[in-house]
Design brief:
This protein has 149 residues and is of the alpha/beta class. It has helices spanning 15-32, 81-91, 107-119; strands at residues 47-48, 59-63, 69-71, 74-75, 97-101, 125-127, 130-131. The chain is elongated, with a radius of gyration of 27 Å. One of its GO terms (molecular function) is transmembrane transporter activity.
Length: 149
C-alpha cells in the first residue's frame, strides 16, 4: 500500500512588508529631526549635558571672545544692540533669542547682553552650549588615568 506524500507549505515572512516598515521608520526619523548649521563667527561654546537645537526663525546673538557682538551674523556695537534686537524681534516675534557666548567672555558682559535682550522684548532667551563629553558630566567619576609606560 502506498501512502501519499504530504507536501508541507513553508510560510515565509513577506519581505515587502518589512522593507516598507523600515523605509517608513527611516523617513519618519529623517523628517522629524531638525539640523541647523550655524556658520560665521567662531565661538568656543561652554559644554552642557542637555542641549536643544535652534530653529531657523530664532534670533542668533553671538558674543565673541574679543567682546564683539553679532546679531544674525552682522556685527552690532553694544550701544546699538537694543534697537537692532527690537527690529529683529519684531520681524520674528514667535522665535527665541539664542545667545552664543564664547566660554572665555566675562560673565558680566553676557549678563549685560541678556538684560538688553529682555528690555528689547525677548520672551525666550536660550544659551547655546556644546554637548558635554562623558568625562565632563558633573557627578560622574573621572575615568581612571592610563599608566605611563
Amino acid at each position: 500500500m502506498r501512502f501519499r506524500e504530504l507536501r508541507r507549505v513553508q510560510a515565509e515572512p513577506g519581505m515587502t512588508a518589512l522593507i516598507d516598515t523600515v523605509f517608513l521608520l527611516l523617513l519618519f526619523f529623517a523628517l522629524s529631526s531638525s539640523f541647523v548649521m550655524q556658520v560665521g563667527i567662531s565661538v568656543n561654546l561652554p559644554r552642557t549635558v542637555s542641549s536643544e537645537t535652534a530653529v531657523r526663525k530664532d534670533v542668533i546673538v553671538v558674543v565673541a571672545r574679543d567682546g564683539r557682538i553679532f546679531v544674525n551674523n552682522e556685527e552690532v556695537p553694544f550701544d546699538s544692540l537694543w534697537g537692532r534686537l527690537i527690529e529683529e524681534l519684531r520681524v520674528q516675534p514667535e522665535g527665541a533669542l539664542i545667545l552664543r557666548a564664547d566660554r572665555d567672555v566675562p560673565h558680566g558682559q553676557v549678563v549685560r547682553v541678556m538684560d538688553v535682550a529682555k528690555q528689547a522684548g525677548a520672551g525666550r532667551i536660550a544659551i547655546a552650549t556644546e554637548p558635554a563629553r562623558k568625562d565632563e558630566i558633573p557627578g560622574r567619576p573621572a575615568p581612571p588615568a592610563e599608566p605611563k609606560r
